[in-house]
Amino acid sequence: MRRETRKHEIDNNRTLIYAAGGVIVVAIIAFVVGMMLFSNKLKNDALEGEYSTSKISSLVPNTITTENIVQDASTEIGKTVAELKNEQEENVELEKKETIFQVQEQEEIEEDTVQTVSQETENAIVENDNLETVASTEEAKDPVFTVPVQGEIIREFANDKLVYSETLEEWVSHNGIDIKAEKTTVVKASANGKVSTIKNDPRYGLTVTILHDNGFKTVYANLLTAEFVTEGETVESGQTIGTVGNTATFEILDEPHLHFEILKDNEYLDPSIYLKQ
To answer: Which whole number is the average pLDDT over 110-138?
Structure first.
């Protein structure tokens, strides 16, 4: 009986052990299966995540990333630097062109100015030549001398021969002509000119000298008065310059008259040849 009981207990223990082992095996199998299922799920989730990321990336290709931002910024900076360089080069080129244009414009202005000045100078030279030609032509014409006082010639020109002087009582030369006229008779300028001197000559008395063009000079001596003109005054032909007198000491015994002389470059000429009535 006791032996059977003991055997029965052993059998029960075995049964429990087998049952426990079976439970453990089942638990292990369940755990392994569960882990496999969980692992597959993780893989599937990972694949789905990768797909989603890839899909999102493909659907949104312009997604901003740090790398893209840096790359875009570098590109933009490169473009800006290039644009600035090009712009500076264009500005420099424009400034060069403007400078060249200004220089050309200034040169054209200076050339026009030089041409204008040259033309004006040429015109001035031509005008001056014309004036000199006219002046030379005018200088080439001798003044026309008119009779300074109406009357008889009582002593003629005698520069290369001698005439007798009643006052000096000798034969002398005579550098002009003596025109008989009453005292206070008006004496007129023989031609246009300028009064050079008014003086009391020790030989010919009160004397007026007038300078004319082309080196001519006229002398009016033996005057009573010369108050109608002053030294340096410009006179015209026929203008009153004085009156006939008797102040010439070398001709004091002669009748009242005007002693008249014409000179060319300080050489005495015969007034009778040059006088026009």
So the answer is: 62
